[in-house]
Specification:
By secondary structure, the chain is of the alpha+beta class. Helices cover 45% and strands 18% of the residues.
Length: 449
Amino acid sequence: MPLIITSPIKELVVGVRNIAGGNFKQRVDLPFGGELGQLILSFNDMAERLESYQEQNIEELTAQTAKLETLVSTIADGAVLLDTDLNVILANPTARRLFGWEGQEVLGNNVLRYLPEPVQIELTRPLYESAAGLEASEFRITLTGPTPRTVRTLLTTVLDQQREKVKGIAITIQDITREVELNEAKSQFISNISHELRTPLFNIKSFIETLHDYGDDLSDKDRQEFLETANRETDRLTRLVNDVLDLSRLESGKQYRLEAVDLLQPVEQTLRTYQLTAREQAIELGYDIQPDLPAIWGNYDLLLQVLTNLLGNALKFTLKGGKILIRAYPLPSNISDPSAGQIRVEVADTGIGIDPEDQAAIFDRFLSGRKSSAYLRGNWVRTIIVRNILEKHHAQVHLVSEPGVGTTFWFNLNVYQEQLVDSMGNPKDKNFLDLTAEPNLETDFLRPL
């Protein structure tokens, strides 16, 4: 009898040990009744519940792991997870692309063997320090190669539930190349604007100080000349400030209503504005607008500013006896039906022209510091405004220039067709109204002045 009782108890002890070791499939299959049988049934029921609980937890854990892996693989930032020996446990596609790991088996290997040299040099010591439990560190590193990139790298220690022991290291990599470029461009823009503002301010200050200190020793003619110069420089400063404010307004994301515009009206208004200045400089102003030209799709005030900026710049660099002409005509492919196509607008002059190396820079918002030519000095903000306005018309400004011969700025505008725009004047068909493509040298031409 003792052996009969001892045998199932031994099996129960073995089963308890197996369950304690994680084997929840353990069962005791002995035909006993009474209290011992009840104990065996209770043990088997417990084992069954534990097995079910384990399977449920494994399924949930697997699902959570899959979600985590999907999330990590789709985030825009690079993510790398290391163990305390610096072996790679996980690396998402972004990290593989930034570190050049495509096609390499990095999982399970020491990360220092695969990091790009600039990253390896910067991160070797911090990685070991993080593995030892030191706080997170952040680094900005430039990756060399065919396309240099700047990345922000963050090291974060992964702790256990008690937050006492380091379980691994998480590396987050952010591509901040565009951010760095924009910051540098912003600094360059501010530097350029500061330079443009400094010149008239210095001139105003110099002439005013001279009048203040030596006014009694100057002739009436000299005093009048000094005051006129200071006044001109004040006007120049005001124009520059207004240009910067206009550029800020255009880049603020404000929406402008586009509607049918008769091009002849802004052209005539622009010519009236500069008529007196042109007469004083002995420059001929004129326009050549094809009769019965259909209305274009645009904003009157913005197009007026485009023509004003271009004509104002042309006047500055056209010598006495020169000529400036504003033209508008249907493109050749639209002559048979001008109501269904595009209108070419040109502002042409016989001025000093623009050097070839400056022609690309003239529309660059963040001019690269070397404003060497006479045309670029003080005029680049206005040409940027022209570019921004025409982009709001889904158009692009171009230029043809030859030093000593003259310059022609030109752009195409869509003929207004009511059925193609909504109540706010926005295009229903984005492709039809997109004129931002580069010109085709075989089909695009300019009429001689």
